[in-house]
Design a protein that fits this description.
By secondary structure, the chain is α+β, with helices and mostly antiparallel strands. It folds into 2 domains: 26-209 and 219-236, no CATH class; 279-536, Rossmann fold, CATH 3.40.50.1460. The chain contains 16 helices and 17 strands. Strands 11, 12, 13, 14, 15, 16 and 17 form a 7-stranded mixed β-sheet that branches. Strands 5-6-4-3-1-10 form a 6-stranded antiparallel β-sheet. Strand 13 (361-368), helix 11 (397-404) and strand 14 form a beta-alpha-beta unit. Helix 2 (31-51) crosses helix 4 (70-77), helix 6 packs antiparallel against helix 7 and helix 10 runs parallel beside helix 11 (397-404). The longest helix is centred in the N-terminal third of the chain and has 23 residues, at 2-24. The chain is elongated.
Length: 537
């Protein structure tokens, strides 16, 4: 009887899936021309609006479309459509779509008949500003104009998508006129209101699958994402990003929301932090959050593995390199074991242990390569698949600096190849008790990171005999799409050595390869008197 019920349920489920698939493709060959008409209209709307504006009006237009400064808006306004990547979702007949961003709720984010996203910087890492629109049918021209939309020839209403409260903030800024306070905060407001990510778009008919352990709703699985890259839209960029295969991103290694505690350890001890007795060692932590399959593309894995292999070539032992990557990956012949990036508790405990244990770490290298919020905070992984980042799914800059504050390692070297990396630089400049931290970023201020440019430079460099400051100087010439930056809280002393602290260049007799391996790389023995004094005071 039980087996018969299982069979019947399987048949019903298969039928439902078939019906859903048939409905999804009901537009058939009409979908590509429809998306093309949306993309053309949206692009022309921005171009016409911005070209007709001057001065503060141009700033208002750029902000209204989600571009946070005039320079960026001018660049986009001159951009041929062939450089713009198109993402689109079209609702099935009788259905509608809901969109969710990881870094903020959306204004008028109810259900819509279509979602369009134009990415003017397809080679940039997320987050970076994109142009996002909602499309609705059955709205009168008067109503469309009232809500700030544009009526299309097809009768549909095209609206600019905005984050919650941002339309009110923009209106308040315009009403402020010559008020001196608003201009001072204008850039911050525009950056905060920019849409920087691909939203999760799902059918309005889909209810949350279950409730997670924190009491929040758990969204549809990742393969239910309706907003997809389109390579079939004539005239626009037809090169979609290379994504990791769907199966490898479907589940999370050691998912704390699943009942797998017998097989996995996701406590603070999961990273197996090890401080050797009578030794000090070089340690590294690599974090590549990913967030979801669309933003954790193949390039993010290439970047992480390239940096990992560089560390190994320079004496870092495998057990002292901890990798927190996207949804996690098991070890195989081509890569080490990678913890899930959402194991934030384990990540923070590991960093704090390294920093609070005297002589545990000589060089502590931290590599960051994640999708980032506009304040520089890395997104980890959308564990509950609801599209919105909660406190366990983002590693804030404040938390990061707290974890390395007063670090007892000889030097902390941060290599940050992600968008908005300049915000971390600014936070470190204003922080206290970070006297041994050296930060290398792929850009300044709100600049995006560009694929693997900065990581490739660091991974190719000959670190064994090259000073850190020289690595940085070379990056200014080799990394051309952004402006690499350096912040050294040691007054320049630490950058006059190599990655592992060896003398180099004009600041001391350079070590031979053999001397570097024996005296500076990996683990070095400590005199018992020094080690015991650190343990027993």
């Amino acid at each position: 009887m039980f087996g018969r019920r299982v069979l019947d349920f399987s048949v019903i489920l298969a039928a439902l899936v078939a019906v859903a698939a048939a409905g999804r493709h009901s537009l058939g060959g009409r979908e590509a021309p429809l998306v093309q008409s949306w993309a053309e209209a949206a692009r022309k709307w921005f171009f016409a609006s911005f070209s007709a504006a001057e001065g503060k009006a141009a700033e208002d237009i750029s902000a209204a479309f989600g571009l946070f400064n005039l320079e960026m808006a001018r660049r986009v306004s001159r951009m041929p459509r062939a450089e713009m990547r198109v993402y689109a979702a079209v609702a099935d007949d009788g259905d509608a779509l809901n969109a969710t961003l990881p870094d903020g709720r959306m204004s008028r984010s109810g259900s819509h008949h279509g979602v369009l996203l134009l990415d003017p910087f397809p080679a940039a890492r997320f987050g970076h500003p994109v142009l996002m629109f909602f499309i609705d049918r059955g709205i009168s021209e008067k109503r469309c104009n009232t809500i700030g939309g544009k009526r299309l020839e097809s009768g549909e209403c095209l609206q600019v998508a905005r984050k919650n409260r941002c339309p009110n903030l923009m209106a308040a800024e315009r009403m402020g006129g010559q008020n001196n306070r608003m201009p001072r905060h204008r850039v911050h407001m525009h950056v905060r209101c920019a849409i920087n990510f691909i939203p999760l778009v799902r059918s309005a008919k889909e209810a949350p699958v279950r409730t997670n352990q924190r009491g929040g709703s758990v969204g549809t699985p990742e393969w239910e994402q309706r907003l997809t890259c389109r390579d079939d839209i004539p005239g626009f960029n037809n090169a979609c990003p290379a994504l990791r295969d769907a199966e490898s991103t479907r589940l999370v290694e050691c998912d704390p929301l699943r009942l797998n505690s017998q097989r996995c350890d996701f406590t603070h001890e999961a990273a197996k932090t090890k401080c050797n007795i009578f030794q000090t060692c070089d340690h590294a932590v690599l974090l590549s959050g990913g967030w979801n399959r669309q933003m954790s593309d193949s390039q993010s894995l290439i970047n992480t593995l390239a940096f990992y292999e560089m560390l190994k070539r320079n004496g870092f032992s495998e057990e002292n390199i901890k990798v927190f990557f996207a949804n996690g990956l098991p070890a195989d012949q081509s890569r080490p074991h990678m913890y899930s990036a959402v194991m934030k508790f384990s990540l923070r405990h590991h960093l704090r242990t390294l920093c609070e244990t005297k002589y545990c770490a000589d060089s502590l290298v931290i590599y960051l390569n994640s999708p980032t919020r506009s304040d520089g905070s890395p997104l980890l992984w959308d564990l509950d698949n609801n599209g919105e980042a909660d406190t366990n799914e983002v590693y804030t800059v404040r938390e990061m600096l707290r974890d390395i504050q007063g670090c007892l390692s000889r030097r902390v070297i941060m290599v940050i190849d992600q968008s908005y990396s300049g915000e971390i630089l600014k936070a470190i400049h204003n922080a206290n008790n970070l006297s041994n931290v050296i930060v290398f970023t792929s850009g300044t201020g709100h600049q995006p990171a560009w694929q693997g440019d900065f990581t490739a430079h660091w991974s190719r460099a000959m670190h064994r005999n090259t000073c850190l400051h020289q690595i940085y100087e070379d990056s200014l010439k080799e990394v051309t799409r952004s402006s690499p930056s350096l912040r050294d809280t040691t007054s320049g002393e630490a950058t006059r050595t190599t990655l592992t602290g060896a003398p180099c260049g004009a600041y001391g007799r350079p070590s031979s390869d053999e001397e570097a391996r024996q005296q500076y790389e990996g683990c070095q023995n400590l005199p018992s008197s020094i080690y015991l004094s650190s343990v027993y005071g």
